[in-house]
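User: I'm curious whether this sequence folds into something compact or stays loose and floppy. Could you predict its structure so I can see for myself?
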Amino acid sequence: MPNLKPVINISWGDSDCDCLETDDYEIMCISVCNPYSDVVFSNLVIGKIQVLDEFGNPVALLPDGTSSVELHPIGPYCFGDIAACTDNGMNCVAREFVLFNRGAKAGKYKIVIEGVCFEICKNYSHNTCFELVLCKN
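Assistant: Here's the prediction. I'll summarize afterward.
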């Protein structure tokens, strides 16, 4: 069986120019899409999301000991069944979360998605041929 997996994206903002500031909050969207026409992803769950610095380390803490960049909620995110794609494109299911930046250092960060679990229901079809002999009347 091939290595089948969903397409996962994170988006935010109303335009291509929407910036994430160091003191800000942003509603973000995590979407899971099915690009296959013969597969259903069942019971899809993302266990946890977290934000790390560009090197994969925890983000800087504030003087009160809390993180300067936080995601809420961190998980789990339940997506249910994601049906096969159609002629109109991929089927997608989305969930929202909030990114809180409080005195964060400017720079690059990573959102890490952990524990993506799902079942695969694969639909197989095949053709067969039968020969007929027609007798003359």
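Summary: The chain has one domain: 7-122. The longest strand covers residues 39-53.
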